[in-house]
Amino acid sequence: MTERGFLRQPLLWFLVIGLALFVADSRIPDTRSEIVITSALRDRLATLWTTQTGLIATEAELNALVDNWLKEEVLYREALRLGLDQEDSIVRRRLVQKLGFIAESEAIPAREQGELEAFYREYVDDYTLPVRYSFRHLYFQQRAAAENALARIGEGAAPQEVGESTMLNPAYAYRSALDLNATFGAGFAGQLGNLATGSWQGPVQSGFGFHLVWINAIHPRQVTPLEEIRQQVLQDLQRERQLRARDAYVENLLEEYSIVVESQ
């Protein structure tokens, strides 16, 4: 076989090209990251499955969970490599939220009775019931009808005979101004404060029409004793301390940065 014929042999070129690719591949560093599926990971996935379903994962289910985790991990790493986490407000908020949870979970010393009482006194307005109203009312679409009904009641007519039908309750008890304005419309509760108790008065205007009102009682502001709401105050104090821990954590982080504000 001539030299030219030898060089035309397909098998020869196949071997040459294969050898070249092998050499090139051996000289190119393997930059692939290693993903390790540990026993701890499998245990964590199994625990998560039990928490969500109440069942113990079978071997097939656990393998499927690991497979899903592996696919998610690959996508996550590729997203980071491509920088998809940059300039993304949703990712930014989620990371900030997660780090905030970590900061708030710092160990907090046991609460003392004196601290609880001091916190309660500082925020006592939050545990104080506002002025509340207990009353009955009669409803009318027109002011003139309400005024006429009031006159008839003064002459001896029974109240239940003069009111018009309405979807509103005939009586309300221990309702705050906020509650009443939400039910009857803005400004309704302010008019009740000008009425005396124990007689039919009005008309009082609401978002529905006009009302004759019988005030049973106007209950003054009332501070709820600490002993009656101790658990709620404990929870509020705990939340307050978590927020303080988070603020302190952020302040410490800020000390590690140099803040530069570019001129406009």
Tell me the number of strands. Answer: 6
- What is the percent of helical residues? 40-55%
Flag low-confidence runs: none
> CA-to-CA gap between the ends?
81 Å
Q: Helix/strand-derived class?
A: alpha+beta
Instruction: Specify the number of helices.
Output: 10
Most strands sheet: 4 strands, antiparallel
H and E order: HHHHHHEEHEHHEEEH
* CATH architecture label of the domain at 131-220: Roll
What is the level 1 CATH name of the domain at 131-220? Alpha Beta
Overall body shape: elongated
Strand order of the largest sheet: 3-2-5-4
Rg calc: 38 Å
The overall average pLDDT, rounded, is: 82
Quote the CATH topology of the domain at 131-220: Chitinase A, domain 3
The amount of beta strand, in percent, is 5-15%
Describe the structure.
- The protein is elongated.
- A four-stranded antiparallel beta sheet has the order 3-2-5-4.
- It contains ten helices and six strands.
- Helix 5 crosses helix 10.
- It starts with a helix and ends in a 10-residue tail after the last helix.
- It is α+β, with helices and mostly antiparallel strands.
- 52% of the residues lie in helices and 13% in strands.
